[in-house]
Amino acid sequence: MATAHVTSPISGWVMGLAAEQTLFEAPIWDTIMIAGLAGGATTLLSLLLAVWAARRIARPIERIEQGTHALMLRRTITFSNTGLLEADRTLDAIASTARVFEQHDREREAHVRLIMRELSHRSKNLLAIVLAIARQTSRHTSSFEEFESRFNSRIQALADAHDLLVEQQWSGAYLDDLVRAQLAAFGMEKVDCRGPRIMLRTKAVQNVALALHELATNASKYGALSVAAGKVSIDWARETAQDGERNLRFTWRERGGPPVIVPSKKGFGASCWSASRSTRWAKARSSSSRRDWSGPASSGRSI
Fold first, then answer.
1. What is the rounded average pLDDT of the residues 153-158?
2. 3-class DSSP assignment, residue 262
3. What is the CATH number of domain 152-302?
């Protein structure tokens, strides 16, 4: 029971009031209970929303992880919209990257097949050239030691030509580079080279390289490079024929060497020059050949 009283200052009367305590406590407890229930419901609802949001975010993240793994394995990737804008953008980017990788893989496989076919073709051609060199060398040698020496030097000349082709990605080789590569082993201090920078066709490079090697070998054994006072002059130029076709004139001159003797039979070098004449050396150009034997101590070959 709760009691209270008050005394009037005028009349002196005393007024008293008594009431049950529960009448005052009930609203407070009701308020506390309602607040507690509301807080509990809010907490539960927040937990449910957090779980829902986490699951909604977890699915796209799981798909992104799956897409990344499939991208690493170069597998085809397809995704449906997740409803989460940022995740959808990421998945679209992964799918686009996968398509680009797939296209690149197809192009790479096609390129590898092309390279294998080209490698097979060039290997067969190279083997045919090596066999031809072996046959021609055997015809002009009288002992195995001579055959081995000449065959090895000619194969090395062919290898040097291939190095130049590789540098130009098999598009051809420059004539001045080819001349220097073939004559480097014989010493360039006695050789004078002049001419414009001309790109030879791939098919012509091998024949011209072997022909240059034979000229240099003959000069070192019997010609100007075999004596101290000998000199070799090499020049080339483009010329326009009367019919308007552009030709390449290649001249090899030796001075200060032993007397020139006209060969009695056709050798390996002449065969190489004949093969090079049948091959177009460069774009929009044919080749002509002429040999001049003159002078007791000089020789010239114009190709």
1. 91
2. coil
3. 3.30.565
